[in-house]
Amino acid sequence: MELAARNSEHSHSAYRKILLNWRVRLKSCLIVDDSRVVRKVACRILNDLGFTCEEAENGQKAFEHCKSKMPDVILLDWNMPVMSGIEFLEKLRMMEHGEEPVVMFCTTENDMNHIKRAVDAGANEYIMKPFDSDILKSKFVQVGLM
Amino acid sequence: MRITDFDIYRDILKARSGLSITQDKAYLLDSRLTPVAKKWGYASLEGLTMALRGVPDEEVIKDIVEAMTTNETFFFRDQKPFDLFANTVLPYLAKHRKKKSTVRIWCAASSTGQEPYSLAILLKEHAALIENLNVEIIATDIADKVLNTAREGFFSQFEVQRGMPVQLLLKYFTTEGDGWRLNDDVRSMVKFEKFNLLDSMDSKGQFDVVFCRNVLIYFDEATKSDILNRISNHMAADGFLFLGGAETIIGLTDSFKALAERRGLYVLQDSAHDLDSMTA
């Protein structure tokens, strides 16, 4: 009797675990920006939208991150020390599985030449700073992440 | 605000625009009408209210109506209706309208133009499908101010980022100063006209597609019914009506019926649609 109860309890918790993993596989977002403040703000908004966030302060760090773990989506600044956003994107799209993440630029560069160059390099969307949660959300909906 | 003062505004709005406001929205009067009072030289809203008790100036009333109208809008708002327009309505019209015939689309309460311009862009994107048709987009609103903004086709960086995919932004807009200008070939596809939904629609003619989204929510039940019924008299027998996702016709009209599995899309009750030939 006791054993049976324990077995059932065990299978119940195992089942719950599977269910949780299956249901709540949150999408992951890598936020690449040299400003800690921007990373925090973006992270807070994205957490509210149901994404897990990791951060990188430049293109090089982001590239290292992607080598070990490819995120579902990358929010990418343009101007950063060490490696810029556009350099990172070009390298990312050459990597194995590097075509998989949705890449969304998020930068103060707001002229057509920059936007064209980003799209040509494989960016899926482009956010011009300053941004707010409405813009971020509408862009995520647009590319089918939500 | 005193209840009797509230009544003055409620009556003006109801008579001039059909807008229905309830006491719980009294705070909106203060925040939206204080600038109008200032503009006309009154020290406070009370001053404006006093003036309205006399012989009100038509121009002042116009400003009051415009200030109280909600103009929330963005490109491709809610996405789904635009998918339905591109994937269901356009293929249907392409198949069922004679070559060279004119298809007429009406955006009722078009605000600053994001909805009709989104449709114009979709028409451009699906140009091959409708190459044998002549498409007209008529966009109307009660407020001159938003109509003028809409005609300009000039949007701030914030506005273009709410809903406009970046590929379409590059294709149909050009940067200008702090904002983005819609290219002339798209801008010229939409004809903006001033129109009050309470007025007779007789001069408007017949439409193949009507967008009347998130407008009726501001009217009382009787006005909603009346507007829907009058719209139905201006629809092609196999025309399409789009309402907002949260809106319903239940209890309001028998003129239309909802299309199953196509949320927000309605056809005439006795419609002559060849429904089977519609794609999803």
Explain this structure:
The complex is a heterodimer of chains A (146) and B (280). The model of chain A has no long low-confidence stretch (mean pLDDT 89). Chain A has 6 helices and 5 strands; from the N terminus they run H-E-H-E-H-E-H-E-H-E-H. The radius of gyration of chain A is 19 Å and the shape is globular. Chain A has helices at 2-23, 36-48, 59-68, 85-94, 112-120, 133-142; strands spanning 27-32, 51-56, 73-76, 102-107, 125-128. Chain A has a 5-stranded parallel β-sheet with strand order 2-1-3-4-5, with helices on both faces. In chain A, helix 3 (59-68) packs parallel to helix 4 (85-94). In chain A, strand 4 (102-107), helix 5 (112-120) and strand 5 form a beta-alpha-beta unit. With 146 residues, chain A is an alpha/beta fold. Chain A has one domain (27-142): 3-Layer(aba) Sandwich (Rossmann fold), CATH 3.40.50.2300. Chain B has 2 domains: 3-68, Chemotaxis Receptor Methyltransferase Cher, domain 1, CATH 1.10.155; 80-277, Vaccinia Virus protein VP39 (Rossmann fold, 3-Layer(aba) Sandwich). Helices cover 41% and strands 19% of the residues of chain B. In chain B, the strands form 2 sheets. Chain B has a 7-stranded mixed β-sheet with strand order 6-2-1-7-8-10-9. Chain B has a 3-stranded antiparallel β-sheet with strand order 3-5-4. In chain B, helix 11 (221-232) links the parallel strand 7 (207-212) and strand 8. In chain B, helix 1 (3-17) packs across helix 4. The longest helix of chain B is centred in the first third of the chain and has 17 residues, at 80-96. Chain B is globular, with a radius of gyration of 20 Å. Chain B starts with a helix and ends in a 12-residue tail after the last strand. The mean pLDDT of chain B is 92. Chains A and B meet through helix 5, strand 5 and helix 6 of A and helix 8 and helix 9 of B.
